[in-house]
Amino acid sequence: MSDPVICGVDFDDFVISMEEFHGYRSPGILFGGLMIEASLHELGDTPYLNVVTETVVCLPDAVQLLTPCTIGNGFLQTIDWGKFALTCYDRLSLLGVRVWMNPDALGGYPLVRQWFERSSHKKEKLPFEALAAEIIVAAKEAISQRPVHLHRSLKESQSVPTGRCPGCGESYPLHLGPACPACGDQAYYFYQTPTK
Amino acid sequence: MSDPVICGVDFDDFVISMEEFHGYRSPGILFGGLMIEASLHELGDTPYLNVVTETVVCLPDAVQLLTPCTIGNGFLQTIDWGKFALTCYDRLSLLGVRVWMNPDALGGYPLVRQWFERSSHKKEKLPFEALAAEIIVAAKEAISQRPVHLHRSLKESQSVPTGRCPGCGESYPLHLGPACPACGDQAYYFYQTPTK
To answer: Are A48 and A92 in contact (CB under 8 A)?
Structure first.
């Protein structure tokens, strides 16, 4: 069987690009690429493509490698639900196709199943080549899809008024409150200034 | 003045890569690249580099273009605070350097100020070349920085037990509750299946 073309990208080039961007050859990005391919094929012509992933793991990088949608340009959104699923949609029509991995379809694909279920076991390193070959075949059975209609576009299209935070003096969106989140009670991740 | 090298990337190559990845030449990504450069320069050798941005606009793409950190590999986190700031840190030592744009330093840089304050006005298209030239000079004055000590690493390093959702049958992280978020009350963004 010849290697597939995924969203217009040759398999070998896709593997190289994921190594460069993501840091390693990722089964999740390969499967994600096949999911995006399936979604876009079903969706058809989509002049205003947006994507939302339901996990922050791997799938966002597949989207960023294969579509014009990135986190920083706002056309890719991520929701941290830990679900191996994504939706490509048109932000004007709000019509989309959600695609996901169907675990019931993995019976004949032991490596894919082992990889997909790894999160509940000790993580084992599976050989990428063999796993990739199985993923390419399994994808036809294991990618489920259905059309969806979003309630609203997830991309912020309105600019918001900003002002200076009375605490730190930095600019922030005024609708967030009288002080910026970093000066309020949301500074949960940092900081103290290190003491020498 | 010669064009700068930003995180080891020639200015011209950086502009090309941002057009390819982000979709257009972005002043925010250019300024963000100079912020990353400043943070890494101050931080020094960082074998376990992670980055957190305090906005989802532009800065995440600067990080993904110039460092090994991406959304999908978990080394880049974004916090949607609408603040033009980011922190590079070492996820083992938890020592980092936060960098941000100081609006008080923009007095001598009318284009940069106009661009940075655009969110509160009607968005105007500024000429990229002139703005970029001003950004490169302004960065030396307008990037503020301070060392920070994070309370914890933001990258999830533990795998979590997963199981089947009784609603949809898909896999999800069991700690999120008895059903997956998409089947619970968090399905705020989608879906109804479109009616024909």
So the answer is: yes
Nearest CA in chain A to B78: A71
Q: Which residues of chain B have pLDDT under 70?
A: 1, 119-124, 185-196
- Contact between B186 and A81 using a beta-carbon 8 Å cutoff: yes
Residues of chain A with CATH 3.30.1330.130: 5-149
CB contacts of B147 in chain A (<8 Å) are 193-194
Asked whether A123 and A114 are in contact (CB, 8 A), the reply is no
Region label for B164, one of left (φ > 0), alpha (ψ between -120 and 50) or beta (otherwise): beta
* 8 A C-beta contact, residue A153 and residue A50: yes
Of B72, B95, B117, the CB nearest to A61: B72
With an 8 Å Cβ cutoff, is A120 touching chain B? yes
Residues 18-77 of A with CB under 8 A from B: 21-23, 26, 28-29, 52, 54, 56-62, 64, 68, 70-74
Check A151 against B180: CB less than 8 A apart: no
Is this structure's pTM higher than 0.95?
no
Residues, chain B: 196
Q: What is the pLDDT along chain A (196 residues), one digit of tens a residue?
A: 678 999 999 999 999 999 999 999 999 999 999 999 999 999 998 999 999 999 999 999 999 999 999 999 999 999 999 999 999 999 999 999 999 999 999 999 999 999 988 754 455 678 999 999 999 999 999 999 999 988 887 777 777 888 999 988 999 999 999 999 888 765 655 555 444 3
CA nearest neighbour of A194 among B105, B51, B76, B90: B90
Give which of A40, A145, A149, A146 is closest to A93, Cα–Cα. Answer: A149
Cα–Cα distance for residue pair B166/B183, rounded to 1 Å: 9
Would you say A36 and A7 are in contact if contact means Cβ atoms under 8 Å apart? yes
What CATH class has B5-149? alpha beta
Tell me the chain A residues in contact with residue B172 when contact means C-beta distances shorter than 8 Å.
81-83
ipTM, 2 dp: 0.91
Give chain B positions within 8 Å (CB) of A70.
Answer: 21-23, 60-61, 64
Distance (Å, whole) CA B4 – CA B100: 19
